[in-house]
């Protein structure tokens, strides 16, 4: 099970978000709070490593990494399909 | 001396690249994407370059010309290696002693790899004409109220060997670069979209302006490319040259947002991070598009096109 707090923990590894992670709401847009394109790549790689998943090409876009809630949903689906 | 590649057999249709060689417009060097240019070819490149100068003449751009190499620390800071490690070219040099020299010569004599002892120099090949500009602009301090506009041209290097003549490894890029507020740089990009489109139409070329992305490396690159397209940061003016299916980007119109402003701490007059945009003219690509569409005999090009280039 993927928890918002675990995602928050991963977000702390992204330099652009380290300072603001604790004040982020689950629906706050991370790109509005300082995440940039290269930061989103860092985030993708960190999530892939932590959850042993691989984001398919159709999810490699800004929306997939835009809020904590969306990340939780996306990673949850990918971990389920990885386990199947 | 390396052997130059053998000429293709004459059976079957000759590729555009072969015909350019046959006509003497481009000259083989033995490396795909690295070619000599004839005087005729250069006369077109120079004419296109002059048109770009005329189009921007009233804008008050500061003209700067950098050599085709840039400072390695500046290159590293630019972030180019995050997106394009496969395209970068570094300059390595011999920095050894007499014994190292002897080993190097022995390797060459034996036909084995002699490059292991080469050390990275402080110079990297320029990947895009604007890359050496940003640290120079940043060193001047905050931008004036109206921002800044620069006019650049440089040979550039990208390591992508190809048999498509439009994908050279060393080529010239003419650029105008705008620095200022988001409104200022976006207005600049719109203006050049109109100017560039009109220029290419007047040169009798079939064109299409399309959203585009840079060729970022790897899976991470696919995400960067998707983001770039989704945000409408890059447009290219395409002309069919090698094929109708894969037209060639002859001009590009790029909005970098605050990417370079943040990296180099370039500030607007009010202290906000500067935004930047650029328009790039691929001088060889435009020349090749003209040769493809009007023929390899430049003297026989339509009068209207010749007048636009040399009138």
Automatic annotation (TrEMBL), chain A:
Gene3D superfamilies hit by this protein: ACP-like
Domain of life: Bacteria
Xref: Pfam families: PP-binding
Record carries keyword Secreted: no
Alphabetic keyword roster: Plasmid
Annotated SUPFAM superfamilies: ACP-like
Protein name (record): Aminoacyl carrier protein
Residue ranges constituting the Carrier domain according to the UniProt record: 1-79
Species this chain originates from: Methylobacterium bullatum
NCBIfam families: PRK07081.1
PROSITE patterns: CARRIER
From TrEMBL, chain B:
Recorded GO MF terms: ligase activity
Superkingdom: Bacteria
Keyword terms: Ligase
Keyword Zinc in record: no
CDD domains: Gly_His_Pro_Ser_Thr_tRS_core
The protein's name in its UniProt record: Amino acid--[acyl-carrier-protein] ligase
Organism of derivation: Methylobacterium bullatum
């Amino acid at each position: 099970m993927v928890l918002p707090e675990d995602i928050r923990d991963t977000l702390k590894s992204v330099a652009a978000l380290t300072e603001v992670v604790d004040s982020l709401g689950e629906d706050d847009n991370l790109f509005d709070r300082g995440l940039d394109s290269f930061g989103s790549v860092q985030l993708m790689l960190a999530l892939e490593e932590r959850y042993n998943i691989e984001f398919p090409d159709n999810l490699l876009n800004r929306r997939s990494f835009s809020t904590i809630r969306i990340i939780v949903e996306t990673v949850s689906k990918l971990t389920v399909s990885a386990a199947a | 001396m390396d052997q130059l590649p053998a000429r293709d057999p004459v059976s079957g249709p000759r590729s555009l690249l072969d015909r350019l060689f046959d006509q003497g417009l481009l000259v083989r060097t033995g490396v795909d994407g690295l070619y000599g240019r004839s005087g005729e070819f250069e006369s077109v490149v120079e004419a296109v370059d002059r048109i770009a100068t005329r189009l921007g003449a009233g804008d008050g751009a500061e003209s700067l010309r950098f050599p085709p190499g840039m400072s390695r620390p500046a290159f590293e800071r630019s972030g180019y290696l995050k997106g394009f490690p496969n395209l970068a070219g570094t300059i390595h040099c011999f920095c050894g002693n007499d014994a190292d020299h002897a080993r190097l010569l022995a390797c060459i004599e034996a036909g084995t790899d002699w490059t292991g002892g080469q050390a990275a120099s402080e110079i990297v090949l320029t990947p895009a004409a604007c890359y050496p500009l940003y640290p120079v602009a940043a060193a001047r301090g905050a931008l004036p109220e109206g921002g800044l506009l620069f006019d650049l041209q440089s040979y550039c290097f990208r390591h992508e060997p190809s048999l498509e003549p439009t994908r050279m490894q060393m080529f010239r890029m003419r650029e105008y670069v705008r620095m200022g507020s988001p409104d200022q740089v976006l207005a600049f990009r719109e203006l050049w979209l109109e100017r560039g489109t009109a220029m290419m139409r007047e040169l009798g070329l079939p064109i299409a302006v399309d959203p585009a992305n840079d060729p970022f490396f790897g899976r991470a690159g696919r995400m960067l490319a998707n983001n770039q397209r989704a945000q409408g940061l890059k447009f290219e003016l395409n002309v069919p040259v090698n094929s109708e299916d894969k037209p060639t980007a002859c001009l590009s119109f790029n909005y970098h947002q605050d990417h370079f402003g943040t990296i180099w701490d370039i500030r607007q007059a009010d202290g906000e991070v500067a935004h930047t945009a650029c328009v790039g003219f691929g001088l060889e690509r435009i020349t090749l598009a003209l040769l493809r569409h009007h023929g390899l005999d430049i003297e026989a090009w339509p009068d209207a096109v010749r007048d636009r280039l040399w009138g």
